[in-house]
Amino acid sequence: FSLDPPLIVREHRVCNPHFSPGFMATVKVDPTSLAIGVGIGAVVAFIATKAMTKPVPVNPDIEKSSPKVATVKTLKEIEDLVSKSNAGKVAFCRCWRSKKFPFCDGAHGDYNKDCCDNTGPLVVSK
Fold first, then answer.
1. What share of the chain is helix, strand, coil (3-state, %, to 5)?
2. Is 100 an active-site residue?
3. Beta strand 10-15 pairing with 89-92
4. Cα radius of gyration rounded to whole Å, the chain
5. Is the pTM of this model over 0.90?
6. pLDDT tens across 83-119, in order?
7. Which of the 8 DSSP states describes residue 65?
8. Which one, 5, 23, 30, 35, has the greatest CB density within 10 A?
9. Strand partners, 14
10. Are 45 and 84 a contacting pair, CB within 8 Å?
11. Active site residue: 68, 76, 84, 113, which one?
12. How many alpha carbons fall within 13 Å on the CB side of residue 95?
């Protein structure tokens, strides 16, 4: 009596081109080995695809000639912008798609729809 599960081996008949046209060879396929082989192949394909995929830049076209885009505003400048605003607040772009960068123009709405993202502006209010 054994508690080990029985080994299941499936047989497939395959034509062998090295023998006469009517000759059939029997190939035994172990399901565990087949599953492991398919799994390893899937992992290798995934890794190869990741290695060949070029990353997409976050910034599509703002000051691309600059090595780094850094918008510097003093607290006084931000306070002045907020004070001069009719709404009493200023929105700064964080999606890098605004035509009024560094200010938000709402471009993140289309970007979010297209990319299934949820980015929005930095809003400074009184």
1. 30, 15, 50
2. no
3. unpaired
4. 31
5. no
6. 999 999 999 999 999 999 999 999 999 999 998 999 9
7. T
8. 30
9. 25
10. no
11. 68
12. 23
